[in-house]
Structure formats: structure tokens, C-alpha cells
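Dear colleague,

Thank you for sharing your sequence with our group. We've completed the structure prediction you requested, and as agreed, I am returning the results in plain text so they can be pasted directly into your records. Please verify that the sequence below matches your submission; if there's any discrepancy, let me know and we will rerun it promptly.
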Amino acid sequence: MPTRGTIPVAQGDLLGTLRRLLSLLLEQNVVDAVLVPVATPDGRNLVPTLVRDPERLVAADPVAPVMPIQSARVVSQLTFTEPTQRIAAVLKACEWRATVELTKLRQVNLDRVLTIGVDCYGTFGVLDYGAMAAETPDLTMRLLEEVHPTEGFRWPNRELRTACRICEHFVPQGVDVRLEWIGADVREAIGIELQEKHAALAERLGVQEGDLLGREEAIARLREARLERRDQAFAAFRQQVRTREGLLSLFSACLRCHNCTVTCPICYCRECIFRTPTFDHASEQYLKWAGRRGAVRMPTDTLLFQITRLNHMVASCVGCGVCEDGCPNDIPLTVIFRAIGQEVQALFHYEAGRSLEEELPLAVFREDELHVVER
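Please find the predicted C-alpha cells below.
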């Protein structure tokens, strides 16, 4: 049974309280290092940073609404070769869900990781966040004080990333420790939930009895609005791809630059077929194709690249949207992968990132699955 409680916010300083909380984990030898977003020197971005010296947490900000790197990839880097030291990883909900999938794919080893999931009101693109931070001191607290009940974080003339506007999984589930501020007066207290095996941390971290009043209502309102936006986006996508021309138009701007695979946490293959000479054809071959067809698009195989990527990882897609962030031509990859992923995962009664206990659909065989064939 999880242990729930609250953590008082000292002198109204939420970030100071969170930094002190993470410092305690290091000072009390609960962990040897903490992976947490830390502001860059110019204050216009935050990057996942592995911290061992508590004093280096002075610029840490687990709340900041920006995600330049999907931290599940970093957790994989830090644990793939089974480290001997203990790490606390502070993760947004989508980062945790991707970590769950990578654990099942044996790309993450959580044996010596304390997972700390945090509520997420949404994130802005890196450039948008940089512009906002340059104009606004104490940006995180400003955003928290003006949270909209159905939009989450918002800012004049700036929109949350597409993935965040349609994300219904903004509260991490199944983490070792969850830090909660949805529905909280963040200048007074935040919520915390610890799994049973970590209940002893409650006293060491100064957890007090109590709960966040109104939290469930706040979560429900935000989730309802995001589900509505999600369903509208999925419906528009499905309408567009009813024709071959509509499908082709979605990917018409693809350059096969591979940015989406590089940023995606689920595209973990050490060797991708599209980054080998397999699709580097002899020069004469392109001329032959052009002669046979009358014309050939360059670069070739862009649609094949996208369809192959869908086939490879859509059952584990958590909808974090970093693929779209990396696309230089703004292909709406978030909606494409989420909409198709929703249908594929439903076929197997599976939801990517929901639980470490659920088996990957493509790793098990069940006699009763996929037995209905449409004629």
C-alpha cells in the first residue's frame, strides 16, 4: 500500500524545497547521483544532468515546462551496462512511460534506480521556452501561479507542444516516488506518494500526514479537456488518410533525415536498416527507375521509412512527441503515431508505459488474439 502525504514548501519557495528534497537523497546516501533537469548557464533551457554534488542542484528545476531530450534515453545510457551505484531519476510522465517500455525491451535496468515521477502540466518547444525564460524571471513559478484548469501551462502567443495538448497521461503511475502539484497551492505544500518498499523515506524526507484537497477534481478537468482535443485530432487524421493521396500528403515533406529516430526513446536499435548502405543505391539505378516510371522522387524510400518505423515501434509509442520536435519540416508525427498506436495497442488490450508487469504484445503469443478477420 503506497504511503501518501505532503511536503511543506519552505518560505513559499517550491524550487528551493524540491532542490532540498533531492539534496537529502544524496546527503543521506539514499542514492549516489540524481538525474534531474538543470538550467543551462543562460537560463534559456534545461537539460537532463547527472548530479553527485548536492551544491550543483542549485539550478535544478523538475517543474520547468521544457523537454529538449527524452530522459528515458538518458536512463538507458546510465543503466544499460548495469551500474554498481544507485541513481535517482526525476522523470516527467511520458519519460517514465518510455522508461517502462525500454525496461521491457531490456534497454533499461531499474535494479539500482529510484524513479521519481513528477506531475506535468505540459511543455513548450525549446525555442519558445527560451524566449519566455529570457523575458521572465522566475518563469516556473509564474506559470504555476497562472495554471489554467483545462489547458495547464499557458503563455501569451505560445502554445504547448502538440503532444502535451492531447496528453491524458500527465500523472506518472507506478514510480517509486511521485511528487504532486496538480491541484496544490504550490507556495504552501505539494503532495508525495511513496511505494511500500520506499515508505521508510517518508520520515527522512520530512513527509507530513495529509493529502491535496481538490487534486482529483483538478486532474479530472484537465484530463477531460485533453481527451476532447485528442479525439478531435485523431478524427481529423483518420479522415485525411481515408485516401491514398491523403496518406502520401502527410509524409510528402519527409527528407529521411532520421531526426525522428534519433530523438525517439523507443527507436533503440543499435543498427537501423535505414542507416546502413541498404538504401544507398547505385547512381544508375535511380536513372533506370526514372526511365521506367517517368520520374522518381529524391530522396527515395521516404514513405517506406516512415511505415517501417511505425511497424517497429508503434505498439510501444508513448506519445511524447519528441519525434515531431526533431522534424525539420513539421510533419505531424505526434498525431500520426498516437492515432495509429491507439488502434494497434487496443488490438492487444495493451497501453504503452502503463505497467512494468504487462508483457509486450510483440514478445508474446496468445492463441485467442487477432482471430477476427474482416471479409
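Summary note from our side: The beta strands are 3-8, 33-39, 46-51, 87-92, 113-118, 177-180, 189-194.

Kind regards,
the structure core
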